[in-house]
Design goal:
CATH class of chain A: Alpha Beta
Distance between the termini of chain A: 8 Å
Strand order of the largest sheet of chain A: 2-1-3
Number of strands of chain A: 3
Order of helices and strands of chain A: EHEHE
CATH topology of chain A: Mth169, Chain: A
Shape of chain A: elongated
Largest sheet of chain A: 3 strands, antiparallel
Low-confidence stretches of chain A: none
Mean pLDDT of chain A: 97
Oligomer: homodimer
Amino acid sequence: MNFRVHVRVIPRPGLLDPQGQAVEQALGSLGFAGVSGVRIGRAIEFGLEAASVEAATQAAHAMCEKLLANPVTEDFVVAVES
Amino acid sequence: MNFRVHVRVIPRPGLLDPQGQAVEQALGSLGFAGVSGVRIGRAIEFGLEAASVEAATQAAHAMCEKLLANPVTEDFVVAVES
């Protein structure tokens, strides 16, 4: 079966995120109030051939650990849809 | 109320995504089979003070249209959790 995998890779809490700070300031300048703690990372999407949702999720986790995310500085969240 | 907003900004279908192509090749080289159509964009998360989920969603959409996404080249998806 072919699944669609969505991965979010976000800088870990506590690590400096200058891009997020810049966007937070810019949102304030544009008049958007009440925005806090902006964090910016990568959104990765792909199709994946796998036998089951579990197999697809497991493969996607392995891809994050090996290539898509930096385990020292980033957290990742995997979502699989069929 | 304070909501947590997750935004995914992804290059539109049909537009070239060299970063996605590079990652697709790299995943193949690492032995991950069955991966296709890799697209890489930005994942943006922030806290947002708003009266309701609807108000938060509407504000996040406005932020995407004004600053977070390029409407010509990118699509965005907004998810709000309380």
